[in-house]
Amino acid sequence: MMRRGRLEILFDILEAIETESNPTNIMFKTRICWNILKEKLDFIVKAELAEPKLLGGGGGGKSIS
Q1: pLDDT digits (tens, 9 = 90+) for 7-62
Q2: For residue 64, is pLDDT > 70?
Q3: 61 with 23: CB under 8 angstroms?
């Protein structure tokens, strides 16, 4: 199995964000660990590719902000 590059990981996360808002579900769907996901989500929010309120905005889940 080949390792994914940064761009592929970001694409996978952005794709998962379209259907999932819970960071845990995004983590499972993209198959990356929490530390990497947190780092990439912070980058995505700073680049204004997604709003922090869209991520983790569901009942009782952790928010990334």
Answers
A1: 999 999 999 999 888 889 999 999 999 999 999 999 999 999 888 775 655 444 44
A2: no
A3: yes
DSSP 31: T
Return all residues near 60 (Cβ < 8 A) that are at least 6 apart: none
Yes or no: say if 32 and 54 are a contact pair by the CB < 8 Å rule.
no
Vertex 45 angle, CA 44 and 51, to 5°: 120
Does an H or E element contain 36, and which?
helix 34-46
